[in-house]
Amino acid sequence: MVRCGESGGGCFGSRMGMRLARMCHLLVLEKGGLIMILVTGGAGFIGSNFVLDWLAQSDEPVLNLDKLTYAGNLNNLATLKDDARHIFVHGDICDQAKVLELLQLHKPRAIVHFAAESHVDRSILGPGEFINTNINGTFSLLEATRAYWSALPEAEKTAFRFLHVSTDEVYGTLGPDDAPFSETTAFAPNSPYSASKAASDHLVRSYHHTYGLPTVTTNCSNNYGPYHFPEKLIPLIIANAQAGKPLPIYGDGQQVRDWLYVSDHCAAIRRVLEAGRLGETYNVGGWNEMANLEVVHTLCDMLDQQKPKAAGGSYREQITYVKDRPGHDRRYAIDARKLERELGWKPAETFQTGIAKTVQWYLTNQAWVADVQSGTYANWVATNYFNREGA
Ligand code: NAD
Ligand code: DAU
Q1: Which of the ends of the chain has fewer CB neighbours closer than 10 A, N or C?
Q2: What does the alpha-carbon distance between residue 38 and residue 66 come to, in Å, rounded to a whole number?
Q3: What domains appear along the chain, each with residue ranges and CATH number?
Q4: Quick check: 215 and 200 in contact, CB under 8 A?
Q5: From ligand 2's centre to the CA of 120, what distance in Å?
Q6: Is 156 assigned a catalytic role?
């Protein structure tokens, strides 16, 4: 990994940056096109899985722009420490001038935009950062991209792609018998998080229709897998169970989510980047609807087998019902047939295979969990679960 921008996101024009740009320029000459992608938010959960999977399958370099918020973690990318194909830039997508400088210096052929504030509960307790990064940040990134892309030679302009990574939450919530969300379902976001993502989806759509920017958008269901920050349900339950802490279930635990193993999401993004139709959106899902309580029971049972409690008994005994999330969406379900029909993508993992890999990963990577739980994590847990008890 080559690392730039340590001091406040600068160094876009550094000597190191110039050397990399020259190196890429030579590759461009050899291959006859631009040969690098820019990933935003590539130190987060899905972004880091995407970068790792990308470089496991391709030699095309990745320029990784990440602000390193509480959710960004360079330890996720530790295996790329000595890999020159990964160029890390510490910076903010809201900094339009710097992003434009970065684009002009490195000349990526595509942008895969993950960077966002992503946790619904945090958006309820403090929506400001969600408006800032998800809406203003996406706008700022689109503006920098438009300026860069407009000036590209015609062939490179045509080949360029801006892939926006979004969520199924923009569609709102479903009743038990409603058909799953399709790409034509009307947007009805219910949380500040989903509203900010919906706004960013609209902005991306408008840049295609108005300026012709070659965009594609993916709307995906709940991911799980390695490097998932333990504020989200699955990693939180795995961590709390082992620590002997309560396993908090919001409300009655009958809210339904569709779960997708993260590497399947990454494969879908690669496929859409490669062959998605411009201006289109593609739903991505695992065909794996489960109530939260069922997910928690599954995790407890797996842990009972793989790491039995020293004092005996089941981890299920730690389940604690707590006050519900305000405005909690009852059910998400994704109709991913368009992606399968047009681009041949299907998830490789079932929930059973994916969750087994996930539990195994967390059991063997306790140091990663301990590291992310240090620092401000404890403050978040205290704030989020304060006043929820006794539901
Ligand atoms: P995450 O919170 O784990 O990671 C977000 C990353 O973005 C972090 O590395 C963070 O440092 C970075 N970031 C935040 N603000 C930034 C800024 N202003 N400039 C640059 N970098 C910034 O999120 P995730 O779960 O990996 O989700 C990634 C994307 O996928 C998001 O856009 C999210 O809406 C979307 N998504 C997530 C899921 C899911 O289940 N996690 C499902 C569907 C879609
Ligand atoms: O659907 C895609 C979305 O999935 C992504 O866009 C979001 O970025 C991602 O965070 C995720 O959102 P959810 O709100 O569905 O995920 P979370 O893991 O926070 O919660 C999953 C379900 O579990 C939800 O119904 C709330 C519930 N829950 C969560 C926590 C943290 C609990 O019951 N207890 C908890 O302590």
Answers
A1: C
A2: 11
A3: 2-226+260-289+327-350 (3.40.50.720)
A4: no
A5: 7
A6: no
